[in-house]
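I hope you will forgive my troubling you with a question about protein structure. I set the record out below, with my sincere thanks for your time.
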Amino acid sequence: MINKRLLIKNLLAYNDENTFYDKKVQLNLDSKEGKAKFLKHICAFSNSNPKNNSYIIIGIEDETNKIIGVDFFDDSKIQNLVNAYLENPPKIQYENIAFPRLPRYKVVGLVTINPLKEFTSLKKGIWKYPKGTSFFRQGSNSKPLDKIEVKNSNKPIVEAIEKNARNNIELTLNGVFDFMEQHQKNLNPTYKVFKDQFVVCWAGIKKEVDNKILYSRVDIELINEQIRLFYSDLDAVEIEYNSQSFIITEYLQININKASPSGDLGGIYPLEKTIIHFKDNGVHDIATELLFKPPVYDAIVLQHIYNSNNTILNKLEKNISLSKNDKAHLQQLPTTYMICSLNGFKDAKKKLESAKPYLKELANKSAYINLKEVLRVLRKVKYSK
C-alpha cells in the first residue's frame, strides 16, 4: 500500500520534471484549452510509459518546488473526459492528498496514469490539436510525434520510488494523530479500522435533519494512503459504515426565497453516494452514484430571480456600489444561477463563471465558496449525462 504523501515527496526530491512525472501549479478543466493541455499530457505519459505508472502533481510552484496546494477536487468522472477524447485511453486516478502544513481546505492533487501497452492518440480534435494527434514525453515536455519508439524504460526507477513510498505502521499512526490534532472537538474527529489494514478518519459538525444524522464542514481521509476522500465547508453529509464498506451520501441545501419547487423536500436534496469497499488483499474500490434530481421551479419566478442576478452582476462588473438588498441576494447568487441553469436558462452557467473573479475579491468569501461548490455540482451533472 503506497503512502501518496510520501510518494509525492519522493517524486519531487528525485529530479525535475521528466518522462514519468510532471508538476503543475493548477489544472484548468473549465476551458477547451485547459482540457486539451491536460489530455496532451495524459496521452504523452501513456505512450512514454507502457510498463510503469506515471504521475502529474498539482499544486506545486514550478521553479521552487514549493507545495502551495489547490482546492479539493472530487470529480470522479474525470476518466470520462479521457475516454471521450483519447483512442486507447489509459486508466487514470485523480486523488487529493492532505499535507499537514497546508490549510484544511487545500490539498495536493495527484494524477496517476496507469501503464497501457496500446498506442494512445486523440480520437477527435480539441482546441488546436487535430484528430489523430499523438504525444510523447521528451524530457520535461509533451510533444506531438507521428511515430513513437520507446527506447528507455522508466520501470526500474519508478518501481524504486514507489517501493520507498510504501506505508508502515508509524506513518499510519502519525497520520491518525495529525488528523485528530488538526480537528477541534466540536468537529467530532473519529476513526474506524477496516479489514485490519485500512484506517478511515472523519470529522464534522453533527446535526439532525428529518431524523437523519448529517454532518457539515466534513473532512474524510484514508490515512494509509494519505488520501482526502471528501472535503466540504457547506454540504450536509450522511456517513454510514459496516465491516467492509464506508458510505458517504452527500446532500445539497437549496433554498430560494419566495419560491417552492415541485416535490419540495425542505431544501435538502441528495447529490451523490460514494461507497469505499475494502478487500482482504489490501486494495479498495471506490464507486460513485449521482443521485441528484434538480428541483423544478416556476418559470416566471425564476425569470425574476435571473434578472435580479444579472443586475447584481452588472453592478459588480462596473464597480457600482451594491444596495443592502443586493448584498443580501449576493450570497444566494451562485445557487440561484445554478437552479436557473438546471431549469433551462442557457446562459446562466456563463453568467455564473463570469461572476467568479468578482466574488473572489469580496472581503466576505461566503459567496465565492458557494460558487465553487455550485460549479462542482454542475460539473458532476454534466459528466453524468
Observations:
- The longest helix spans residues 299-317.
- The chain has three domains: 4-163, 169-290, 299-384.
- Residues 67 and 115 are 27 Å apart (CA to CA).
- The chain is about 35% helix and 25% strand.
